[in-house]
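ok, trying the design again with the full structure, not the truncated one.
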């Protein structure tokens, strides 16, 4: 897994380096959201980079894990917000299924 940190590294999002194909030939993106090294539950949103359209929104499980299923092979960015509003949002840009 690759860990991406934003701002003062108090909230970070670890993203799976692996994108697996689904039975329909589409893709899945998985990851985990962390705050100060501890996995946290929150809402995570996936956007298409070229249009800015929101593709999916999911809630993580209690361990901060999330999964977007049935994603087309397009450049995306992922946004996670601190549920306590203590820190700024975390954004992972240029997420592309491979």
């Amino acid at each position: 897994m690759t860990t991406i940190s934003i701002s003062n590294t108090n909230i970070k999002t670890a993203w799976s380096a692996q994108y697996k194909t689904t039975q329909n030939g589409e893709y899945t993106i998985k990851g985990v959201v962390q705050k100060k090294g501890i996995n946290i539950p929150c809402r995570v949103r996936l956007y298409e980079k070229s249009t800015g359209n929101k593709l999916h929104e999911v809630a993580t499980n209690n361990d901060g894990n999330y999964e977007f299923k049935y994603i087309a092979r397009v450049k995306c960015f992922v946004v996670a917000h601190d549920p306590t509003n203590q820190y700024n949002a975390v954004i992972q840009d240029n997420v592309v299924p491979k």
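Keeping the full-length input from now on. The radius of gyration is 13 Å.
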